[in-house]
Design brief:
This is Cytochrome c oxidase assembly protein CtaG. Its main location: membrane. Belongs to the COX11/CtaG family. With 200 residues, the chain is of the alpha+beta class. The chain contains 1 helix and 9 strands, in the order αβββββββββ. 15% of the residues are buried.
C-alpha cells in the first residue's frame, strides 16, 4: 500500500499538478482565442458576405447611375417578385407583390413598415436575391437599405427602392426574387416629443 509520503505518492501528486497546470494553460488559450474570434466575427462576416454576395449591406449601390433609355432591352421581360421579412416590433411588407420590367429599365417599388411599439426603434434592412446569379446584375439607384432607419412610436412609413436590371443578366433568368429582412439594431433611441404617430 502507498503511504502519503512515499516516493510513488509524491510522483503521482507531482504528475497531477503538472496535468492541472497544463489543462489550465490550455483553457486560458481557448478562452483568449474565443474572445478574439468573437471580436473579429462581425468584420469577418461582412467580408465573407461581400465575397459571396449574400446578405450584405450594399452601400456601394448608393452611387449607381440610372441607365439611359438606349440601354433598355425591350426584347425580354423580367418578373421581379418582392418579399419582406421582419425581425422586430413592426409590420413590414412590399406594397405590391411583383413587377414586370425590361432589363435596363428604371423601376420603382415601395415597401411599407409600421412600428407597432410605443417607443422609437432603430432598424436596418438587408437585401438578398434569388437566384444568386442575379446579385451583381441587380442595380439599386436608391434604397432604404443604404442607411439605418429610425422609426418613432407607432410611425408608419413607405420606403421606395429605385433599381434596374443590368441587360447583361443571363437570358435564361426570367424571374427574380428581391427579399429584404428588416431587423432591429441595438442602441438607445432619443424620442422626439412630437414623434408619436408621425407618418412619412
Amino acid at each position: 500500500m502507498t503511504t502519503p509520503n512515499s516516493p510513488v505518492s509524491s510522483r503521482v501528486n507531482s504528475r497531477i499538478r503538472r496535468l492541472n497546470r497544463s489543462t489550465l494553460g490550455k483553457l486560458v488559450v481557448v478562452a483568449v482565442m474565443m474572445f478574439g474570434f468573437g471580436y473579429a466575427l462581425v468584420p469577418m462576416y461582412r467580408q465573407i458576405c461581400e465575397v459571396l454576395g449574400i446578405n450584405v449591406l450594399t452601400q456601394q449601390d448608393e452611387f449607381v447611375e440610372a441607365p439611359v433609355n438606349t440601354q433598355v432591352d425591350k426584347s425580354r421581360k423580367i418578373v421581379v417578385e418582392l418579399d419582406g421579412n421582419s425581425q422586430g416590433p413592426w409590420r413590414f411588407r412590399p406594397v405590391q407583390r411583383s413587377i414586370e420590367v425590361h432589363p435596363g429599365e428604371l423601376a420603382t417599388v415601395t415597401y411599407e413598415v409600421v412600428n407597432t411599439q410605443g417607443r422609437a426603434v432603430k432598424a436596418q434592412a438587408i437585401p438578398s436575391y434569388a437566384p444568386q446569379v442575379v446579385t451583381p446584375h441587380f442595380k439599386k439607384v436608391e434604397c432604404f437599405c443604404f442607411r439605418e432607419q429610425t422609426l418613432q412610436a407607432n410611425e408608419a412609413r413607405q420606403m421606395p427602392v429605385v433599381f434596374f436590371i443590368d441587360p447583361k443578366l443571363p437570358r435564361e433568368v426570367k424571374n427574380i426574387t428581391l427579399s429584404y429582412t428588416f431587423f432591429e439594431i441595438g442602441g438607445a433611441v432619443q424620442t422626439a416629443s412630437s414623434g408619436s404617430g408621425k407618418v412619412k
